[in-house]
């Protein structure tokens, strides 16, 4: 897939208003968030500009307004982009082991997934990044941001002690402008899988039965032995999202969250108001970014951004567009 280049950034097309695969999946009772390519009818109301789509007729390159950096006062955006991304494949995903809060790194495939994800979001503005405290999510965020067109430097914020905070200070305003704070939070960690951590998923199903393991993995309120249920995971992850991340979006900051299959399932359940029944079939693929637009206190799901040269649709509202260079 080509690197991120501006000519792919935005091409205005007649919004193709296919129903989002997510909603059709919901009808089919199969809520699967893999790569939703939709530019729904509300796009027109929101003034969305949809990116290139192989099936849509390209009308003309969108006129990108001058960027804030070009001297114009950056107008505080009334909308903000929220990108959610599950970490790339980890070494224990590859071995099909329950991972939970065990801190394992990415595989080479997971590294590539993070890089490809970065190309898909390379034109979407990011002002602050949140990750869990686990290395697989942090690696994913850093690798993805290496592909970003703005080339700002993601810097992990250290506040674990006064000394850590003091010793990691940056003393140049210009340098700060060229960096993006990365905030790590244990509340965004993967659900703690209790006594399943380190066990092989297939062997566990053979031992306890497929249905029991599916119930532990995907139900809302049934925890694995001495582990967290999705509900318990949501109590920390969604609370953190509401208390720490939503205020950033309200202030117009564009946010990326790099986290885990279940901590993100709990957040998406909140954003999309999924029932405890619907969330059972919500699965997140590794390394697939998902875009929401936060506007007037509401979250508009925009699906998975297409890569710079990939068929598919991603959409910006006009004011998010203004952030673009
Ligand atoms: O923690 C793990 O094992 C994986 O990251 C997610 O596991 P799951 O797909 O069984 O929820």
- Round the Cα radius of gyration to an integer and report it: 20 Å
Q: What is the name of the CATH architecture? A: 3-Layer(aba) Sandwich
Q: Could you name the CATH topology?
A: Rossmann fold
As a percent range, the share of helical residues equals 25-40%
GO molecular function, one term: phosphoglycerate mutase activity
Organism: Triticum turgidum subsp. durum (Durum wheat)
Pfam families: His_Phos_1 (PF00300)
Active site: 87, 190
Question: If you had to describe this structure to a student in words, what would you say it looks like?
Answer:
- The active site is at residues 87, 190.
- Keywords: Glycolysis, Isomerase.
- It is an enzyme of class 5 (isomerase).
- This protein has helices at 21-27, 42-46, 91-94, 108-120, 135-145, 162-167, 173-177, 201-208, 210-218, 230-250, 261-271, 318-322; strands at 11-13, 32-33, 49-50, 58-61, 79-86, 128-131, 153-156, 179-184, 255-259, 283-284, 289-295, 298-303, 315-316.
- The chain has 325 residues and is an alpha/beta fold.
- α4 packs across α5, α8 (201-208) packs across α9 and α10 crosses α11.
- The strands form 4 sheets. The chain has a 7-stranded mixed beta sheet, sandwiched between helices. A two-stranded antiparallel sheet has the order 1-4.
- The protein has one domain: Phosphoglycerate mutase-like (Rossmann fold), CATH 3.40.50.
- It starts with 10 loop residues before the first strand and ends with a helix.
- The protein is globular, with a radius of gyration of 20 Å.
- Residues 98-100, 190, 193, 217, 260-262 line the site of 3-phosphoglyceric acid (3PG).
